[in-house]
Amino acid sequence: MQRLLLVGVVLALIFGFSDSSVLYTSNIVTQDWQWSKDHNKIELITGLDQQQWLEEIESLPPSILESLPEIDFQREIPLLVTLGKQPTGGYSINIDQVVKDSSGLVITISRRSPGADDFVSMALTYPYDFVTIARKGIKETVTVIDREGNILP
């Protein structure tokens, strides 16, 4: 019994007594992604409120709307980030991680833009990423940061 208690104390010291928890982690490797555009504009649409979600997604292109799954708003909060309309292919956005802490949700994203020598499609694109997280205990404050920790508008 004492040994089990000691193991518990050691694990608590190693991992800390944090009030934050990871709710989602992407399996897409984005560490080599480069973002070379001047603007940091992204659009975040959250489903903290179902009516607000439905109003905000109305303006999205059909290609995004048609790919969104059914959402159980009693149990899930949908999170959608988009780069908006881009002039060519080669752009991507990824939700790397969603963490719940004492201030609310912190969403870490990665973005990719095509390099000067990359071959890309010459068509308008609407890069986005979408995840759902469990609704339980989520506050209304949401912060979006990039991999470097910069807060994005």
Give a written overview of the molecule.
The chain has 153 residues and is an alpha+beta fold. The protein has one domain. It is globular, with a radius of gyration of 19 Å. The termini are far apart.
Structural class: alpha+beta
Give the termini distance in whole angstroms. 51 Å
> Numbering strands along the chain, what is their spatial order in the largest sheet?
1-4-5-7
Count of helix runs: 3
Shape: globular
Q: How can the largest sheet be summarized?
A: 4 strands, mixed
Average of per-residue pLDDT values: 87
Strand content: 25-35%
Task: Tell me the helix content.
Answer: 10-25%
Element pattern in H and E: HEEHHEEEEE
Total number of beta strands: 7
Count of individual domains: 1
Low-confidence stretches: 1-17
Question: What's a quick, concise take on this entry?
Answer:
With 153 residues, this protein is of the alpha+beta class. It contains three helices and seven strands. 17% of the residues lie in helices and 31% in strands.
Give me the secondary-structure topology.
Elements: H1 2-15, E1 21-25, E2 43-46, H2 50-57, H3 62-65, E3 76-82, E4 92-101, E5 104-112, E6 128-134, E7 142-146
Parallel strand pairs: 5-7
Antiparallel strand pairs: 1-4, 2-3, 3-6, 4-5
Features:
single chain; 153 residues; 3 helices; 7 strands; 17% helix; 31% strand; globular; disordered N terminus
